[in-house]
Amino acid sequence: MYPKVKQALARAWRDRQTVQFGVTPAHAVVLGPVDTATGSLIDRIDGTRGMELLRSEGAALGLRPGQVDELVRRLAGAGLLDDATAGGPRAQSLRDHPAFLERLGPDLGSLSLVRREPGGDLRALAARGALRVQVRGSGRVGAVIASVLAAAGVGRVEVLDGGRAETADVAPGGVDPAAVGRLRAEAASGLVRAAAPGRGGRALGAEEPERGLALVVVAPRDGLQAWAPDPGPAAGWVATGTPHLYTGVLEGTGLVGPLVLPGATACAGCMERDRVDRDPAWPRMLVQWRSAHRRRAAGACDVGLSTAVAGLAAAHALSFLDGELPASTAARWEAALPGLHWERSELSPHPECPCEAAVPARESVAVPS
Question: What DSSP letter does each residue of 275-314 carry, written as one string?
């Protein structure tokens, strides 16, 4: 074991015997009592020394026998300790690619905060490399999401869209002006390859045996299919148990969610049935809106809002892919111009929907491991 104090949390002394790791309340940890000699030893737990050397240096600092091991156990129990050799074979394979790890250093820092066990950050990053995600839509929201997921180490990111890229699709992090006129699918594939930090435009781990779809991100260019998703395309994902996340911008309103977990949370069919229950005129208006959007050249999707939506949606997607349920699970987050106050609305399964998410006794929800 080569213990290493996690570097993602800033360290400060609250008083002469208490150390605080971290600034923000979400991840800050207070450790005490800590004397001066122990504090000096903490500085040396940097992954370059094994336990025997740390015990020797601890003795030179005046620490009692066993005090170094006790400190290491306390740091590990508080989620503050990493191990330069932990994580298993897949984590070790990533250590063999220092340029890849340097590129994703900030991502590993974030992962170390939520994967508190030693080597958890590398293990999670290696797991991303074996995942396959599909993004449906390559406009100002979808293209950015695809590039972010690829840049974060997701092994395979597919983008589905039709037609050719237009000037209105151009956005920072997404389609660039040189891609205008190319097939959208082709332009998006190039975008993903350019963003991926691994060899040949694919994340490390992507060469492993491919799994099924871990997630579908529905990010339509017109936004309406995210606001009022069509149960037809979603039926296949529900039938195969494929999780899917809706996101987009419609008429200056950004939305992230819901993340649908088939059989456990409300699906597109549930949402449509619920809307009809509350507003009988909804089906009639929806037909008109969908017809109008097919004729409309461009919607109200400014670059600031679309970038914010894409970033939040990508973060929620990564949280799910890493094994956590984000706040968009069974819920929709909305923010409208000009105030941009994010508001959350919960979505419940409809008792008459064939997805059967309303059936009681759903004991657990599976997330990628």
Answer: HHHH-TTHHHHHHHHHHHHHH-S--S--HHHHHHHHHHHH
